[in-house]
Amino acid sequence: MRFNFKKIAVALLPFLSFAAAEERDDPSSEIVLFVNKDANEKDISSTLMIFEEYQIPYTLKEFSKDGYTGNFDFLYKDGQPRFHALVFPNGRVAYKGNEAWKSSLTDEQWAQLEDYAKQSEARIVYLNEYPHELTCTQVYHSYGETNPNSFDDVQQVTAPASTSMAEEINGLNFDTKDIHHYPAEANPNTVNTCEVEPLLFFEKQLPNFPEQTWAAVTAKRDGLEMIAFYLAFGDWSKASTALNIIWLEWALGKNFKQIATTGDDTKSAFGKTSDANVSTAAGVILVTLSTLFTMIVTLF
């Protein structure tokens, strides 16, 4: 009996946890990831899985909670912008400080990155983001302050008809079980300075959320184009894989077939996420099998 170990390994990718992200610089990449190495590794693992599974070139830069003293010359080659998408899988390169979440980058460094995005027309992607006026939003009715446990309410995630692949997204029956999330709404202080549109909704969940709230948005502010997702991207969730497909297409303005180097298009990639509600037991079994597989490969 002959085994195709490459196919087996790829099939197991959604159930494996990646080790700590390592810096890399792919000359052919259009995407650069800004990662906080002091944050939870699971914040980045879902994104790395889709890059590996579909063999998508990317560049990854790590930043420490101690700050960044380097420059952003890596954004350019021969004086020209290299990247079409700046991706922040840890929200704003965030880590948990003694009293609050903080960014590894200074305000001046953020301004430099925003200037790059404006001048090069690169799009900005925030994953695991918290609602903020910078993305033209705020936490829904300040429930985060009065009832922080409401962030753990299980809510259905749905897509309006205007969202690409809405029917397929809604077919995933995606909810927020075991996923920390932050229901958002429009920020009234940014009405005159922002254009914001909901991309995904959290469905109402009584008593804390008596109406639909925003799970993801696209926003334009000060010449910037942004997309923000107000929920964690779990490496155990195939629905999170589907969300990665959404932002990749938006960020690069391409069909998934033009992004992946495996020949997969948007529909075939979504097809692989159709069993989004994988049970924990099944996940444990598959991880165990993957461990045995690793032992077999090592021994033989």
Describe the protein's topology:
Layout: H1 5-12, E1 31-36, H2 42-53, E2 59-63, E3 76-77, E4 80-81, E5 85-88, E6 94-96, E7 101-103, H3 107-120, E8 123-126, E9 137-139, H4 143-146, E10 157-158, H5 166-171, E11 184-186, E12 194-202, E13 213-221, E14 224-229, H6 238-252, H7 256-259, H8 266-271, H9 280-299
Parallel strand pairs: 1-2, 1-5, 5-8, 8-14
Antiparallel strand pairs: 3-4, 6-7, 9-11, 10-12, 12-13, 13-14
Helix pairs in contact: 2-6
Structural description of this entry:
There is one protein chain. The chain has helices at residues 5-12, 42-53, 107-120, 143-146, 166-171, 238-252, 256-259, 266-271, 280-299; strands at residues 31-36, 59-63, 76-77, 80-81, 85-88, 94-96, 101-103, 123-126, 137-139, 157-158, 184-186, 194-202, 213-221, 224-229. By secondary structure, it is of the alpha/beta class. It has one domain (5-299): Rossmann fold, CATH 3.40.50. It has an 8-stranded mixed beta sheet with strand order 2-1-5-8-14-13-12-10. β1 (31-36), α2 and β2 (59-63) form a beta-alpha-beta unit. The longest helix is centred in the C-terminal third of the chain and has 20 residues, at 280-299. It is globular. InterPro entries: CBM87_Agd3. Keywords: Membrane, Signal, Transmembrane, Transmembrane helix. Residues 33-250 form the Agd3 CBM87 domain. Residues 1-21 form the signal peptide.
